[in-house]
From TrEMBL:
Domain Impact N-terminal: 20-125
GO CC field: cytoplasm
Domain of life, source organism: Bacteria
Family named by the database record: Belongs to the IMPACT family.
Protein's recorded name: Putative YigZ family protein
Amino acid sequence: MPLSYPSTIEAGVEQEIVIRKSRFIARIEPVTSVERADGVIAAARKRNWDARHHCTAMVIGLTADQARSSDDGEPSGTAGIPMLEVLRRRELTDLVAVVTRYFGGVKLGAGGLVRAYSTAVSQALDAASLVHRVALTQVRIEVPHADAGRFENLLRSWAGVAGATLGAPSYTAHATLEVWAPASALAGLHDAIAAASAGEITPQLGAERIVDVPASDS
């Protein structure tokens, strides 16, 4: 299935690592706005109110066009930016990462902090379920009621291998069947319908929408 947009995660995840007695608790949540991301950060601060640092990174938007990060008192460039780079490297969006650090009394140095915060986010993402985002085009066909079942079965079988999804049928003077398909599969769908109808039925293209597809289904 072609991926046209950055992916996101299905649900929040949390992982903890300990490096030279410092605890790094990484929490990553899917969000749809900066305001929601700020809410996740505020909740982490409240939950772990006694921690020294709550470093953050977020990427927001369908095309990942908004990004922010904060070192929250760690040396400049050792926490937020490395966390953000992990999100960028994995081509993710609409999520916020918060890494809470409980200082263990041993300084890690700039390089050690970069590795610690990057690793905390990476390990949390390793435990997350990815959701891919794809652009699908609406395709409708009108068929006689007597042929509706046959063409619905055709569309269902085709959709299962083409990364498409069926829409809801409607029944008026004719049966109108709907499928949402990736652009790369439209030519194949046209050919399948032409073959099944001896060229008498022409698919009608409609709107485009972005849908989330769990990685296990792609």
